[in-house]
Amino acid sequence: MSATIAVLAGDGIGPEVIAEGVKLLRVVDQRFNLGLNFQEALIGGIAIDQTGSALPAETIAICQAADAVLLGAVGGPKWDDPSAKVRPEQGLLAIRKALGLFANLRPVTIHPLLIDASPLRRERLEEVDLLVVRELTGGIYFGEKRRERDDRGEWASDLCIYHEAEIARVVRIAANLARARHGKLTLVDKANVLETSRLWRSVTTRLMREEFPDLVFDWMLVDACAMHLLRRPADFDVIVTENMFGDILTDEASMLAGSMGMLPSASLGEGRRGLYEPIHGSAPDIAGQGRANPLATILSVAMLLRHSLGQEEAARAVEAAVSAVIEAGIVTGDLAQPGQRSYSTVAVGDAVAERV
Ligand code: IPM
Ligand code: MG
Fold first, then answer.
1. Among residues 20, 109, 261, 283, which one has the fewest Cβ atoms lying within 10 Å of its Cβ?
2. Is there an atom of ligand 1 within 6 Å of 89 CB?
3. What is the pLDDT of residues 72-83, one digit of tens each?
4. Per-residue exposure over 26-43, b if at least 16 CB sit within 10 Å of its own CB, e if not
């Protein structure tokens, strides 16, 4: 086989963690004979500096021609003015939209040795294995935005809009994943207040009854979900939810795992092509110091191998290597226990690569 990977390192710690992801992919390529080639492209702040756009047309073309996209992170203090016309985050939203990546998978699992890195009590965290499937190209993120002035002063609005078909396609992906996991799907919405949520509720209920009667299906209001993620996280299997609720809940859920530096993500559409990125941001405060945890990117590489290249065995080899490295105590500062030595981004990346 052969496959092309578009590599969008972005800003801040993006280039450092992506270097480890690419290094690992080259090792996997050798061992499993994947015939990979890599195409670098610009996104985010660095793209603004070099081209004036957070997502140059050339980057879109490279991603559209690729089998998968590996992305680091975008943003930083240099481009942080929220009133600026061009912002790094626009690049991220635009690439998701341009590639039709409507389903964002954010798994949360905790290696037993890292439980103490979480602010939550150990007994709450044992057995946690959940997956949030976040709708990624609709809702309030992409609805019409207005900013105007009338006799009472300035006003602004963001439209939250969902079509039935947009809900059904992401719920189908989530339900199929639940079927291959522990057989339970939870819809998270705000159906006691929002009309969009009432549509989510009715479309999902019907679809689950007609197409997935074998699964356990329930729903939960988003505020209650925020509480239960801390109170009884082990009860969840797959959560499916709209764009903004998913954004907020996944930052919360990441703290179950102790560090944002551990959590990967995959964004998928109708075909096999996907975009893979760590869920953490560009962490400008530690950029360029070799302190960033590369494991979220490396675990995103495992998801890339699984979902876009169909290389389950290679994906498992990467995940096993990550576990082995954690067990050997080779971790960055965010995970090191008091008194434990911490390793650099490159050292952790090398340790994973050696074990694949
Ligand atoms: C995320 C991020 C983005 C989002 C931002 C940077 C636009 O928070 O991927 O979760 O809100 O989707
Ligand atoms: Mg977010």
1. 109
2. yes
3. 999 999 999 888
4. ebbbeebebebeebebbb
